[in-house]
Design a protein that fits this description.
The complex is a heterodimer of chains A (about 700) and B (about 190). By secondary structure, chain A is α/β, with parallel strands linked by helices. Chain A is about 50% helix and about 10% strand. Chain B has about 190 residues and is of the alpha/beta class. Chain B has a single domain (about 1-180), classed as Rossmann fold, CATH 3.40.50.10420. Chain B has helices at about 1-15, 25-40, 60-70, 80-85, 110-115, 135-140, and strands at about 20, 50, 70-75, 85-90, 95, 100-105, 120-125, 130, 145-150, 155, 165, 175-180. In chain B, strand 2, helix 3 (about 60-70) and strand 3 form a beta-alpha-beta unit. The longest helix of chain B is centred in the first third of the chain and has 14 residues, at about 25-40. The radius of gyration of chain B is 16 Å and the shape is globular. Classes of the chains: A alpha/beta (about 700), B alpha/beta (about 190). Chains A and B meet through helix 2, helix 8, helix 10, helix 11 and helix 12 of A and helix 5, helix 6, strand 9 and strand 10 of B. Strand 9 (about 265-270) of chain A pairs antiparallel with strand 9 of chain B, so a sheet runs across the interface.
C-alpha cells in the first residue's frame, strides 16, 4: 500500500466528524431500510432486478440502438460513444454552437465519472450543481464521498463555513436556514441557465424514456427551465421495457434512503415544450466507458446489475470508519472499488481493494444481487497475476506451501515466543511488529499442538468415523477447542480421525489473491482429508469450513483446473461446520443435554463466514440455549470483529476501531461470557478484552458445550 | 374505494403531504378559495397564485374564481410562476401504496405550477386513486406521453447531516384536494 493511501486512511480515522456522522448513519440506516421493506419480498424484487439488468447487459448493443431509434423518433438527439473525452467534446461543442452562458446540473454520477465540470470551467462556461449535496462539494472544491449523499462527510458547521466563504459571508450552522439559503441562491441560476444537465436512473429501450429519481425537485427544474437538456446516461442504465422499471423503482428509494418512493420521479420520453412554447433541444448521450468490456468478462458482468443505491457503503464496517474519500474521486465503497477498476483502470484499485474486509455484510442486502466481496477478491487475484506478489508475501506463502516447514516453524515459535509470553498471551511485540499487539494481545503458540495432543486422547473405537480438520489456529494456538470437539463427538459414538497431512486451508493465500498457492493447499488437503472413509469432515473454524466446502472448488474453477474438481466436490459434500453437525446429532437423538442446567447469561457473536456463507445462525444459539444458557443478544451481533485473517495485520488501524465497537457491544449486554464459533474471532476478541483488562470470558462454542452432554 | 383513499391518505401524510377530501367540487372549491385567502394570496406582487385550468372548473369558470380570490391567475407563464406563492393543478392519477400523485406533465404550465411556487395545491378525483405503480402505468402510457411526473410529498433533502428538511428546490407544502364527485373512472 502506498504511503499516500495509508495517510488518507489515517486522516479519515482521525476526523471525528466523519466517523461520528457515518457511525450514526449506519445505525439509523439499518432501521429505516428494514421499515421501508416491510411487506415487500426483497428476495423476489432483487431476483427481478438481477434478471432485468442481467438480460439488458447481455443485449446492450441491441437495446442502445432501440433506445436511440425510439428517442429520436420522439425528437431527441442520441449520441453514443465509448469515450469520456468525446462526451465532453460533444457537450462543449453544443454549448458553443447554442451560445450557452450558464449551465445547471442535477446529480449525475456519469458526469462525475468524466469530470465534466472541470471541462466547463476550462471552457469559461458557468456551471452550477443544484443537488444540495453536490452544490456543497462543488463550492468546497471536493469530490462526492457517497453515491447518494455526496456531502455526508461534512457537518453543518463545515457547510456554513463553505457557504460563508464561497457565496455570502455570515451563514449560521442552522440546517433549515442553510437549505433555505441554497434555495434562494440557486433559484436565479435555474431561471437563467441555457442548458440543463441530468443523468438518469433508468433508460427504457422500448419507449426511449429516461427515468429520473430525485427528492429535492432540482431535476424537474433542470429539465423544465433551460432551453437545452442534455442527459448523460451510462449504458448500464438501459432496460428493455417499461415493465422493468417496477422492481428498480421498488428497491432504489427503499435501499438508498429508506423511502417508499422519492418525492419526484420523472419519466421523460422525447421532446417537451419549453416555457416559450418552442420544443426543447434534447440530447441524450449513451456512454459506454468500458461497460461493454465488463459485459464480456464472465465474472464482472454482474457488477452492471448495480442500481447505485449505495447500500454496500451504508452497511460496510470499514466505510463507516473511513468514509468515501479514501476510495478515490468518483465511485466509493465496495461497488465503487469495482467500478473504479473498470472505468478507470485495474491499477487504480490496487490500494482500495485492500479495504474490503471480506465480511460479506453487503451481499444479502444488494438489490442487484452482486457478489461484491467476491468480485473484489477477483480484482485482488488479477492484480497479483498482473503485478506479482510482494517479496514478503512470497516468502510467507513459500512457507505455507510446505507443510513440514510451516509446522516446524510454528513449533519453533512456541519456543522463541517465550520472552514475550505472559500466560496464554503475547501482549507486546517489539519494533514494527508492535502494530499487531497495540490494540489486542495475541495468543501464545500452544506448547503442544493439537496434532500431538490427539494422540494422547484415548478414543473408544467406533464404526462411524468423522474426519476433523483443525486449521492452523486450533492446531497451534487453541488445541483445547479440538479436544472439546473430540469429547463431544465421542459421546455421540463417533470416532474422530485427524489426518496428519492436513495443512493450511489456503484462505490466507486466497484472500491475498495468491490463487496458485491456495490451489496447492487445496490439493494437499483434499488428499489428506479424503483418505479416511468418514461420514463427515468437520471443522470448528468457519473460514476453514468455507475453504473446504466452497473455496477449493472456486479456486480450481477460476484457475481452470479441472482434474481436481471431482475430488473437491466430494470433499465439499462431506464438509460441515461444528455447530451444524452437533445440532444434527442432537436432533437425531445421538447427543442428549444434561437436564435442568441453569448456566446463566451469555452473549453470542456471529462470525462472518458462519452467518453469511454457511448460513448457520440458529444452530449455535439453539445448542447453547438447550445446554442451559440464556442468550443476551448484543447490538450488531453479526458485524465483523475486525480480525479477517491477515486484514488485522495489513490494516491494524481499521481493525482496531472495528474491534473496539464489538467489545463495547459485548460489554453492554452485561453477560460475563461471549461465545462464538470461529477461532479467528476468539483470537481477536479475547485479545481485545485481555488488553482492556476485562474479566469477560471468550469461548468457542465447542468449549462451552464440552461438558454439557450426558 | 374508501380503503384505497385511506391508504393513500396515510402514505401521503407520512411524507408530509396535506390531504383533504370533499364530496363535491363545490365544497372543494370553497376550501381552495378559503385556503388561498388564508395563505395570503392577493394581487400584491409575490403573493399571487397560478392555476392551470382543467375539468375541475368546468361549469364554474375561471372568471368566477378570479373574482372570488384576487391574485389568482390562469395565465401560467414562467415569469408568473416564478413569483407566485401558490401553484394549482389537476392531477391524473394517484398511487395508494406510496401516497403518490401522477400526471401527464408534458404541458409546461403543469410543470411550472408544481415546481416553482412554494405551495403546490393538487386536485384529484377520488376514483383516480389506484393501488400501485403498475396500475397507473397501464393507464398513463409512456409510449404516448412525453413527460410523466410522479409526486410524493413536498420537496425534501437530507444532504446536510442527514437531517430531513422539507422544501429545497420544489414546493415546501403539497396540499392534496381529493374530490369524490369528480373525474369518475369510466373505462
Amino acid at each position: 500500500m502506498t504511503t499516500e493511501f495509508k495517510d488518507s486512511i489515517e486522516t479519515a480515522l482521525h476526523n471525528p466528524n466523519l466517523t461520528g456522522a457515518l457511525g450514526r448513519f449506519s445505525e439509523a440506516y439499518r432501521i429505516s431500510r428494514a421499515k421501508a421493506y416491510e411487506g415487500i419480498d426483497f428476495e423476489a424484487v432483487r431476483d427481478r432486478i438481477a434478471e432485468v439488468k442481467g438480460n439488458a447487459s447481455s443485449r446492450f448493443e441491441e437495446l442502445a440502438e432501440q433506445f436511440k431509434a425510439n428517442a429520436e423518433r420522439r425528437g431527441a438527439k442520441v449520441f453514443r460513444t465509448s469515450d469520456p473525452a468525446e462526451v465532453k467534446r460533444y457537450i462543449l461543442d453544443l454549448a458553443k454552437a447554442q451560445n450557452v452562458q450558464a449551465v445547471v446540473k442535477s446529480k449525475s454520477m456519469a458526469s462525475e465519472e468524466i469530470h465534466l465540470n472541470k471541462a466547463f470551467e476550462q471552457a469559461g462556461i458557468q456551471v452550477d450543481e443544484t443537488d444540495l449535496g453536490e452544490w456543497i462539494i462543488q463550492l468546497a472544491h471536493q469530490t462526492p464521498s457517497h453515491m447518494v449523499m455526496p456531502a455526508i462527510h461534512m457537518t453543518k458547521e463545515e457547510v456554513a463555513e463553505v457557504f460563508s466563504q464561497e457565496v455570502e459571508a455570515g451563514q449560521a450552522p442552522d440546517i433549515p436556514k442553510l437549505v433555505k439559503f441554497a434555495r434562494g441562491k440557486l433559484r436565479p441560476k435555474f431561471l437563467a441557465a441555457d442548458m440543463g444537465i441530468t443523468g438518469a436512473n433508468i433508460a427504457v429501450a422500448e419507449t426511449g424514456s429516461l427515468v429520473i429519481i430525485t427528492n429535492e425537485g432540482n431535476a424537474r427544474l433542470v429539465t423544465t427551465l433551460p432551453r437545452i437538456h442534455v442527459a448523460i446516461v451510462g449504458i448500464e442504465k438501459l432496460v428493455a421495457q417499461v415493465a422493468d422499471i417496477d422492481p428498480i423503482l421498488t428497491a432504489l428509494p427503499r435501499s438508498a434512503t429508506g423511502q417508499l418512493l422519492t418525492s419526484y420521479v420523472s419519466m421523460l420520453s422525447g421532446q417537451v415544450p419549453n416555457t416559450d412554447g418552442s420544443p426543447k433541444d434534447l440530447h441524450i448521450i449513451l456512454m459506454d466507458n468500458h461497460r461493454s468490456d465488463m459485459v464480456k468478462d464472465p465474472k464482472f458482468k454482474e457488477a452492471l446489475q448495480c442500481i447505485r443505491c449505495a447500500t454496500c457503503l451504508n452497511v460496510c464496517p470499514v466505510f463507516r470508519l473511513v468514509g468515501g474519500h479514501v476510495f478515490g474521486k468518483t465511485y466509493t465503497g465496495g461497488i465503487g472499488t469495482i467500478l473504479t477498476a473498470w472505468f478507470d483502470e485495474l491499477k487504480k484499485s490496487e490500494d482500495i481493494q485492500g479495504l474490503c474486509i471480506q465480511c460479506g455484510s453487503c451481499v444479502p442486502v444488494c438489490p442487484g444481487k452482486i457478489d461484491i466481496p467476491g468480485l473484489i477478491l477477483e480484482l485482488r487475484r488479477r492484480l497479483v497475476v498482473e503485478q506479482g506478489q510482494s517479496l514478503a508475501m512470497k516468502a510467507i506463502f513459500g512457507v505455507v506451501n510446505n507443510r513440514r516447514l510451516f509446522h516446524s516453524m510454528l513449533r519453533m515459535a512456541s519456543v522463541t515466543q517465550k520472552p514475550f509470553k505472559q500466560g496464554r498471551f503475547i501482549r507486546h511485540l517489539p519494533l514494527f511488529l508492535s502494530d499487531m499487539t497495540d490494540f489486542r494481545s495475541l495468543p501464545a503458540i500452544a506448547p503442544e499442538p493439537f496434532r500431538d495432543k490427539i494422540k494422547a486422547i484415548a478414543q473408544p473405537k467406533q464404526a462411524e468415523k468423522v474426519v476433523f480438520y483443525a486449521g492452523c489456529l486450533i492446531d497451534f494456538a487453541y488445541p483445547e477447542t479440538g479436544t472439546a470437539l473430540v469429547k463431544i463427538l465421542n459421546k455421540a459414538g463417533i470416532e474422530v480421525v485427524f489426518p496428519e497431512d492436513q495443512t493450511c486451508c489456503g484462505a490466507p493465500a486466497r484472500y491475498s489473491g495468491a490463487y496458485e498457492v491456495a490451489a496447492q493447499n487445496a490439493r494437499d488437503n483434499i488428499k489428506a482429508l479424503l483418505e479416511t472413509d468418514a461420514t463427515y469432515v468437520v471443522s470448528a473454524c468457519p473460514t476453514c469450513t468455507v475453504a473446504l466446502k466452497h473455496d477449493f472448488l472456486d479456486t480450481f474453477k477460476t484457475l481452470g483446473i479441472t482434474d481436481a474438481l471431482g475430488e473437491a466436490q466430494r470433499l465439499s459434500d462431506r464438509t460441515i461446520d461444528f455447530s451444524s453437525l452437533v445440532k444434527k446429532l442432537v436432533d437425531e437423538g445421538r447427543l442428549t443435554f444434561k437436564e435442568g442446567q441453569h448456566l446463566g447469561k451469555i452473549t453470542y457473536h456471529d462470525s462472518c463466514h458462519l452467518k453469511r456463507t454457511l448460513k448457520a445462525t440458529d444452530e449455535p444459539r439453539e445448542l447453547l440455549q438447550k445446554a442451559g444458557h440464556e442468550i443476551a443478544e448484543m447490538y450488531e451481533c453479526d458485524t465483523c470483529c475486525g480480525m479477517a485473517g491477515s486484514y488485522s495485520l495489513k490494516l491494524p488501524e481499521i481493525s482496531a476501531p472495528i474491534l473496539e465497537r464489538k467489545l463495547k457491544n459485548i460489554k453492554d449486554t452485561g453477560a460475563d461470557k461471549v461465545v462464538m464459533d470461529c477461532p479467528g474471532c476468539v483470537m481477536q476478541i479475547r485479545g481485545g478484552l485481555d488488553k482492556d483488562g476485562s474479566p469477560i470470558q471468550v469461548e468457542h462454542t465447542a468449549e462451552r458445550l464440552e461438558d454439557r452432554f450426558e | 374505494m374508501s380503503t384505497t383513499f385511506e391508504a393513500f391518505e396515510t402514505r401521503a401524510a407520512a411524507v408530509s403531504a396535506e390531504v383533504h377530501r370533499f364530496a363535491s367540487r363545490h365544497e372543494a372549491l370553497a376550501f381552495i378559495e378559503g385556503f388561498l385567502r388564508e395563505v395570503g394570496v392577493s394581487e400584491t406582487p409575490g403573493s399571487g397564485a397560478v392555476w392551470v385550468e382543467g375539468s375541475f372548473l368546468e361549469g364554474i369558470g375561471s372568471a368566477h374564481v378570479a373574482s372570488q380570490v384576487p391574485g389568482v391567475s390562469f395565465e401560467v407563464t414562467r415569469e408568473a410562476a416564478a413569483v407566485a406563492k401558490v401553484g394549482i393543478s389537476q392531477l391524473d392519477w394517484a398511487i395508494a401504496g406510496t401516497g403518490t400523485l401522477v400526471q401527464d406533465a408534458t404541458a409546461v404550465e403543469k410543470r411550472l405550477v408544481s415546481t416553482l411556487p412554494p405551495i403546490h395545491l393538487a386536485v384529484i378525483g377520488t376514483e383516480r386513486i389506484l393501488a400501485d405503480f403498475n396500475s397507473v402505468l397501464q393507464r398513463l402510457q409512456p409510449e404516448q406521453i412525453n413527460y410523466i411526473a410522479f409526486i410524493t410529498g413536498p420537496s425534501r433533502t437530507a444532504d446536510i447531516e442527514r437531517v430531513l428538511t422539507i422544501g429545497v428546490h420544489g414546493p415546501e407544502r403539497l396540499i392534496v384536494v381529493v374530490v369524490d364527485d369528480f373525474e369518475k373512472v369510466t373505462a
